[in-house]
Design a protein that fits this description.
36% of the residues lie in helices and 20% in strands. Strands 15-23-22-16-17-21-18-20-19 form a nine-stranded mixed beta sheet, with helices on both faces. It is globular. It has 580 residues and is α/β, with parallel strands linked by helices. The longest helix has 29 residues.
Length: 580
Amino acid sequence: MTTHILGINAFHADAAAVLLRDGEVVGAIAEERLNRVKHFAGFPKLSILKLLEMGKIGIEDVDHIAIGRDSTANLSKKLGFALTNLSRITKLAKQRLENRAQVKDVPALVAAACGVEVKRLRAKVHNIEHHLCHAASAYLPSEMERAAILSIDGFGDFASTMIAVGRGRDIEILDRVYFPHSLGILYTAICQFIGYGKYGDEGKVMGLAPYGEPAYMDLMHELVTLKPNGKFELGLDWFVHHTEGVDYSFDDDGNPTVAPLYSQKLIDRLGAPRERGTEISKRDKDLTRSLQARFEEAYFHVVNDLQAKTGLDAICVAGGVALNSVANGMMFTRSKFRRFATHPAAGDDGTAFGAAFYVHNCVLGNARVAPLNHAYFGDEFSDLEMQAALDKAGVKGAVRLDDEALFPRVAERIAAGKVVGWFQGRMEWGPRALGSRSILAHPGRADMKDILNARIKHREWFRPFAPSILEEAVADYFDESHPSPYMMLVYTTKPERRADIQATDHVDHTGRLQTVSRKDSPRYHRVISEFRKVTGIPVVLNTSFNENEPIVRTPAEAIDCFLRTKMDVLALGNWLVDKD
């Protein structure tokens, strides 16, 4: 008998939904891709409807609804905190009650979204603890039969960190770090102080860090202290989240916001915070470098304790903090772990995925499915739909090529210095463009970063672009060869290869690479292979197919982005449009 499980992340940034059929992924989509609101933080109505359409089922056919939040988790820790903070608990309690009410309403909202009465739902509802969802998302779909597991982020269900061990289909929790101590809060607070306070800005600050010096390490040691057994504590005088609350809220359009997390004490120590849009000072650069260095110390304090506790050589990592690909890339030099797995949506969108898999494997007791080594779980479009979109947009000169002509033609255009919009197959799941909704360019041109920013991306000057490299060529270009299919590992570029990929080689000679497998990404692998034939370089520069918006999902969105920017070529499936 077929079993359908609907996983949901709602009322937090990166609202999303996932649909499983007998443990196989029917689809996984973040709401932002459908409603075009970046990091949308409301209810993923459109995602749920799209997944039911992809699965060709109605909501009455769903057997289980898995929600990535459990307000009953860690109750004793919540009570203990409340009893020792009675004078300031009112605001914190109000926030938690409001959030709990929203999550409780999810089944009714699912029914309303599908146009049925809630009594028509036959699905059993499961609330799964936030960090268990992260842990499940990284471990259960991986190829690891036994692995240490680390879930680490800002906060979720009153914890910021969970360590566990996975054996077969079981996950055993070993320990947690609870509110108010959090490496995610530490990182976000400093990001806010230097003017990067929008949700998701932490990745920008990670890119800025190599431009500074670790001149504020004394301060960073006051902000976070390392404790025995892999624990850590924040210097709470520097923060306000434990008194004012972690005010993750969203406006009427679903845009997420985070209230300031640092206290007046940080201003007294460092002076006025930087205002967004103003010049980045040496102080700000040095703060980011110091922050990243101290974060890495704390991160590997946790990681190495976990390795010692489990004695394993494999680790699975998820949670928003796990998006720190610089730290992840050090896993093989700063720890004894030799195998690494993560989830393509390591942030809170991934809790929808983890909740669904946790119910499938750990609640229902089903065997694990074959490992998932790619992230192509979104929707796709037919050749006729692409042709219709081109006709509707009035695009002239579009030609349809068979594969034997398409791939060499695209490779030749990239080799000639042209910027190509590459729209192929099923959309990626997670925040990275991984060769289905990507913009491709020559990695060896010194001016390509400036060209992309001036003509399309308009990004901060310090942010690097990513290299997508054939999996079999990684060891020839970087100091590590462990696969990185989701752009979650940063490696050092070999000196003799830096000229080949200077447009993706960061100021510290590193790259946040994507390794491209012929088996899992056949079309993307083929276009890079053709580029290699022309240039000798098994790498293309890859950035997301968008312009200050969520990554494009539909052919119409891709065509619109292509036409309004100075992109040169559009490869829409087998349809090719060349502005020349």
